[in-house]
Design goal:
The chain is mostly helical. The chain contains 9 helices and 4 strands. The protein has 2 domains: 175 residues, no CATH class; 46 residues.
């Protein structure tokens, strides 16, 4: 697993697009620090791509960029380990698994991963060196530095058991390490960007801004998401 940064029982972030390359998952996080070895010439990017991303709805459309839990507008939040630093000194909090409709035990629930990847391109001329870099970047030592520096969960079969000293000193992160063992990829379905934005809009409008009843807003979002997922 790369840095999967599991949310406590629920999770979602966009995956990076696959490239035509030999891929090996490696450690990364939601913050800078991933290593990408690129040996082929990068393709040019249109100069106005960033300025048009929002208008083209390729970037988040939220008007609110705060934290509704810290700001006191929501009683709970579905987050990952990155939130621990945000909450420190601002709010007293605790974490529990998100309940399921069927009452499934927490140790049988899975969360979305947030895989970041490094790759060696098939056109790479220095494959030996590139492979050494990949092995170095995903080593136990470097994964430990990633964990220490960011609090993000590296891709390890037993994160908590691999770095016991870290979790002894930072017990708030332990439950996220346990959840990291149970992750799945974000479904690749039609209209995925529109699906995520539909949920965000309903949540923001009802929970954050109080402009609509949460039940009605989210029920409406469910219907729209089902239509989008079916491609209709």
């Amino acid at each position: 697993m790369t840095s999967s940064s599991p949310r406590r029982a629920s999770w979602s972030r966009r995956r990076r697009p696959r490239s035509r390359s030999t891929r090996r998952r490696a450690t990364s996080s939601t913050s800078p620090g991933s290593i990408s070895t690129r040996c082929s010439r990068p393709r040019p990017v249109a100069s106005n791509s960033l300025s048009t991303a929002s208008a083209d709805k390729l970037a988040s459309q939220e008007k609110y960029t705060g934290d509704s839990f810290v700001d006191g507008t929501s009683a709970m939040a579905i987050v990952g380990p990155w939130a621990i630093a945000t909450y420190k000194g601002k709010v007293e909090w605790g974490a529990v698994p998100v309940p399921t409709s069927a009452g499934k035990p927490a140790n049988e629930t899975y969360t979305f991963s947030d895989a970041k990847n490094v790759a060696m391109y098939s056109a790479c001329k220095n494959r030996g060196t590139a492979w050494d870099v990949l092995k170095f970047a995903t080593s136990k030592e470097q994964d430990g530095k990633l964990l220490q520096g960011t609090g993000q969960m590296p891709l390890r079969a037993d994160v908590a058991g691999t770095y016991p000293e870290y979790f002894a000193k930072n017990p708030d992160y332990k439950q996220f390490a346990d959840q990291a063992a149970r992750t799945v990829e974000v479904p690749n379905v039609p209209n995925s960007i529109a699906i995520w934005q539909t949920f965000r809009d309903a949540y923001s409008k009802s929970v954050i801004f109080g402009q609509q009843d949460p039940g009605a807003a989210l029920d409406g979002a469910v219907q729209k998401v089902d239509q989008l997922a079916s491609g209709s």
